[in-house]
Amino acid sequence: MLDAEAWGAECCGERRDAAESRQRILDAARALFAERGVEPVSMYEVGRAAGVGQGTLYRRYEHKGALCGALLHESAGRFSEEVRVRLEGDDGPALEKLMYLLQRLAGFNEENAPLLGAIRDAAGGERRRERYHNPFYQWLRETAKMLLEIAVERREIPPLDTEYAADASLAPLNIDLYLYQRQELGMDRGRMTAAMRRLVLEGLKGSG
């Protein structure tokens, strides 16, 4: 499993003035987003509130999605550590561990929907695939793949392509689909995770 600190290298080796500037930007963005919501706040307003020039702001965070990603860092770290501790301390079936991961990821989506939505909105053109290369998704993918491999080894499920199945298991929790189902279709989280359990777990058991 990837270490929870895999995406924590931003601060390493950073000059003190650069670190202070970064912290002012993040503090300003966090305060503005808490007051007005993520969508209405512009990068210009963040820079002005942080007391940094637009050039400095955009050198650090080239678009709003990147800024939101930096704010998401703490939540992602707590999430990954919680999941790691739970999985390492649980000797139960690997498929149940996978379901735990997916249920907790639904909660993570719920708690961080505005930031995740802003990251999605910033992902145009070549940036559309960035979400699949960021360390957090890679950690989720490797964790899901590991659990699927264990499930195959223990004969909880028939042999399958775990490389593909890891992405497919996470796909129902893509933030676009999640927000569409939650906000436009009015599905509650319990309904969604119950359906996911049947679709993913039962589907995997019958995958042979």
Q: How does this model look, in words?
A:
This protein has 11 helices and no strands. It has 208 residues and is mainly α. The longest helix has 25 residues.
Summarize the helices and strands and which ones pair or pack.
Elements lengths: L15 H21 L6 H8 L3 H7 L3 H25 L5 H18 L1 H10 L7 H4 L1 H19 L8 H9 L4 H10 L4 H17 L3
Counted up, domains total 1
CATH class label: Mainly Alpha
What is the second-level CATH architecture? Answer: Orthogonal Bundle
Query: How much is the radius of gyration in Å?
Result: 19 Å
Write a brief caption for the model.
By secondary structure, the protein is mostly helical. It is built from eleven helices and no strands.
Could you list some keywords that capture this structure?
208 residues; mainly alpha; Tetracycline Repressor, domain 2; 11 helices; 71% helix; elongated; disordered N terminus
